[in-house]
Amino acid sequence: MSTDSNKVAIVTGASRGIGAAIAERLAGEGFTVVVNYAGRAADAEALVTRIEAAGGRAIPAQADVSDAAAVARMFDAAQTAFGGIDVLVNNAGIMKLANLADSDDALFDSQVAVNLKGSFNTLREAAKRLRSGGRIINLSSSVVGLYQPTYGIYAATKAAVEAMTHVLAKELRGRAITVNAVAPGPTATALFLDGKPQQVIDHLAKLAPLERLGEPEDIAAAVAFLAGPDGAWINGQVLRANGGII
Ligand SMILES: NC(=O)c1ccc[n+]([C@@H]2O[C@H](COP(=O)([O-])OP(=O)(O)OC[C@H]3O[C@@H](n4cnc5c(N)ncnc54)[C@H](OP(=O)(O)O)[C@@H]3O)[C@@H](O)[C@H]2O)c1
């Protein structure tokens, strides 16, 4: 166990994909992890069991991040259970692709609700409650920069998350809390793979000079760096973890 053994991290959207890998990695580094999820209770509980079997400490926490009251309750529960919160990883997110001309209101509203309002809800709580020495890590995306067709609304929500990252880093002056974003490129999770023909996946996998998709563990490593002692001097930055795609 590392020096982070008394620290508490909330990871949103940790029932699968990148969030699950982040939760497992941080637990392995000694953080007590709050495994947030919206719908997949069984997956979140299985992850907690896996973390505990490896000697770590975790609890599952259901909360739809787009629901401000539910987010506040989750922070309350973490504070009551563990005495405080040190790290927020804002990972919960959804992606729905369509040209702007073909995007209906529901497609816009759902992505704004989870990716943007959800991040705002958790950032607001974290800004009030994180202990000195804390870390906030937001998940953006390398589509902010690539700006491919069909990614307009999704990219807009992530650009907004990056904007809040920069602003909150400055607002927390004097609290010894860093605020950064990690912006993955194409990463092998359901969010990226579902609904894409294999040839599109193969094409996107070859775009980065490292010529493969990211794995959730690649992104977890970047988040762990920012959450751990070696990331202490990084603040207000966006770290693109993408094999060099942009
Ligand atoms: N995969 C990529 O290529 C890629 C690239 C760039 C950025 N990202 C970003 O990385 C993050 C993780 O993506 P992923 O690929 O791991 O996605 P994923 O496999 O679809 O997992 C998404 C996670 O978010 C949770 N979630 C969704 N809506 C939620 C809500 N309203 N409240 C709480 N949790 C919610 C899901 O929980 P339940 O299923 O339990 O509801 C699930 O655990 C996202 O922010 C995504 O935008 C991904």
Q: Please, could you describe this protein's structure?
A:
The protein has 246 residues and is of the alpha/beta class. The chain has one domain (8-232): NAD(P)-binding Rossmann-like Domain (Rossmann fold). It has nine helices and seven strands, in the order βαβαβαβαβααβαααβ. It has helices at residues 17-28, 41-53, 68-82, 105-129, 143-146, 152-171, 190-193, 198-207, 216-227; strands at 8-11, 32-37, 57-62, 87-90, 135-139, 178-184, 238-241. Strands 3-2-1-4-5-6-7 form a seven-stranded parallel sheet, sandwiched between helices. Helix 4 links the parallel strand 4 and strand 5 (135-139). The protein is globular, with a radius of gyration of 17 Å. The model has no long low-confidence stretch (mean pLDDT 97). Residues 12-19, 36-40, 64-66, 91-95, 114, 118, 139, 141, 184, 186-187, 189-192 line the site of NADP nicotinamide-adenine-dinucleotide phosphate. Keywords: Oxidoreductase. GO terms for molecular function: oxidoreductase activity, acting on CH-OH group of donors. This is 3-ketoacyl-ACP reductase.
Draw up the topology in text.
Blueprint (H helix, E strand, L loop, with lengths): L7 E4 L5 H12 L3 E6 L3 H13 L3 E6 L5 H15 L4 E4 L14 H25 L5 E5 L3 H4 L5 H20 L6 E7 L5 H4 L4 H10 L8 H12 L10 E4 L5
Parallel strand pairs: 1-2, 1-4, 2-3, 4-5, 5-6, 6-7
Pfam families: adh_short_C2
Protein name: 3-ketoacyl-ACP reductase
Keywords: Oxidoreductase
* Low-confidence parts: none
Multimeric state of these chains?
single chain
Whole-number radius of gyration? 17 Å
Q: What's the CATH class, please? A: Alpha Beta
Span of the ends, CA to CA = 35 Å
Name the shape in a single word: globular
**Main sheet record:** 7 strands, parallel
Number of strands: 7
SSE order in H/E notation?
Answer: EHEHEHEHEHHEHHHE
Q: Order of strands across the biggest sheet?
A: 3-2-1-4-5-6-7
Strand proportion: 5-15%
Task: State the domain count.
Answer: 1
CATH superfamily: NAD(P)-binding Rossmann-like Domain
The secondary structure category is: alpha/beta
| Average pLDDT taken over every residue | 97
Bound molecules: NADP nicotinamide-adenine-dinucleotide phosphate
| H/I helix tally | 9
CATH topology: Rossmann fold
Please estimate the helix content: 40-55%
Q: Based on the structure given, which CATH architecture is correct?
A: 3-Layer(aba) Sandwich
GO molecular function: oxidoreductase activity, acting on CH-OH group of donors
Protein name: 3-ketoacyl-ACP reductase
Family: Belongs to the short-chain dehydrogenases/reductases (SDR) family.
InterPro entries: KR_dom, NAD(P)-bd_dom_sf, Sc_DH/Rdtase_CS, SDR_fam
